[in-house]
UniProtKB/TrEMBL annotation:
NCBIfam families: phd_fam (TIGR01552)
UniProt name for this protein: Type II toxin-antitoxin system prevent-host-death family antitoxin
Length: 71
């Protein structure tokens, strides 16, 4: 989403909430000058990509051994 700096000033709380789920690009005089983003979003995406990597019936110790054997 792209908004003007004036729009950001007028509705800051709205865009702070919105930035939790998507990047908000701030423009001034038609040029992007900043990006409002969630600093943890990348971590969440990485964590989501790991779900389902290990079988559901494997224990913590077995998972650790399997990981060490691959190194």
């Amino acid at each position: 989403m792209s908004i003007t700096a004036t729009e950001l000033k007028e509705n800051l709380s709205k865009y702070l909430l919105l930035s939790a789920t998507e990047d908000v690009y701030i423009t001034k005089n038609g040029k992007v000058v900043s990006k409002l983003t969630n600093p943890f979003r990348e971590r969440v995406e990485v964590a989501k990509s790991l779900f389902g990597v290990l079988p559901a019936d494997i224990g913590e110790e077995e998972a650790r051994e399997e990981r060490l054997n691959k190194i």
